[in-house]
Write a structure and sequence with these properties.
Order of helices and strands: EEHEHEEEHEEEE
Number of helices: 3
Bound molecules: guanosine-5'-monophosphate, magnesium ion
Structural class: alpha/beta
Number of strands: 10
Largest sheet: 6 strands, mixed
Radius of gyration: 16 Å
Shape: globular
CATH architecture of one domain: 3-Layer(aba) Sandwich
CATH topology of one domain: Rossmann fold
Strand content: 25-35%
Length: 178
């Protein structure tokens, strides 16, 4: 692995594809124990989580459904409270175990809002899985049930994560060179 340029910024190698794969395998082992028999619905948060979700669900061995959602900022609102809206959540969640799959949790604000929305649709249980977690940036107190890797507060790209729309296609993860 070597340094890459994405648009106007330089990024250096940070997490290899095989380290990512190991982290995902550990999550899958836990889920295969915890979620078998619960008929869970996985809610995959686009765009960033597409690669994580694709690799994770191939390692799961119980019946489950997948659905894809997208979060978008409300236009014209101020910075407080609910700054996101949900696109594509059409499923009936009543009585379901819902597992949200996210690429990375940073401040935790995005997923906090999403979980409230999911709960309001009468899901019986909502769990969270994130490939990456930045504990030093986290401002919330809700539990994250499945975490692949904890990382410092550096900006990263690759494996689904973008810088200004680019860089999602790399199989490894890179961090910004300051
Ligand atoms: P939060 O609401 O937890 O602060 O924001 C989470 C979202 O911010 C993630 O889903 C992701 O889209 C974006 N994000 C947070 N940290 C990074 C990062 O280091 N790199 C990239 N590409 N996106 C990030
Ligand atoms: Mg995201």
């Amino acid at each position: 692995m070597h340094t890459i340029t994405v648009k106007d910024k330089i990024f250096s190698p940070f997490i290899t594809a095989s380290e990512i794969d190991n982290a995902i395998s550990k999550i899958a082992v836990s889920m295969n124990e915890d979620l078998a028999g619960k008929n869970p619905l996985f809610l995959i948060v686009l765009n960033g989580a597409f690669m994580f979700a694709a690799d994770l669900v191939k390692k799961l061995n119980f019946p489950c459904e997948l659905s894809f959602i997208k979060l978008a900022s409300y236009s014209g609102t101020k910075s407080s409270e609910k700054v996101r809206e949900l696109i594509g959540l059409n499923e009936d969640l009543s009585g379901r175990t819902v597992v949200v799959l996210e690429d990375i949790i940073d401040t935790g604000i995005t997923l906090g809002d999403l979980m409230e929305t999911v709960k309001s649709k009468n899901a019986v249980e909502v769990r969270l899985a994130a490939l990456l977690f930045k504990p030093k940036a986290f401002l919330k107190s809700y539990p994250i049930d499945y975490v692949g890797l904890e990382i410092p507060n550096d900006f990263i790209v690759g494996y689904g994560l973008d810088y200004d729309g680019y860089g999602r296609n790399y199989p490894d993860i890179y961090k910004i060179v300051e």
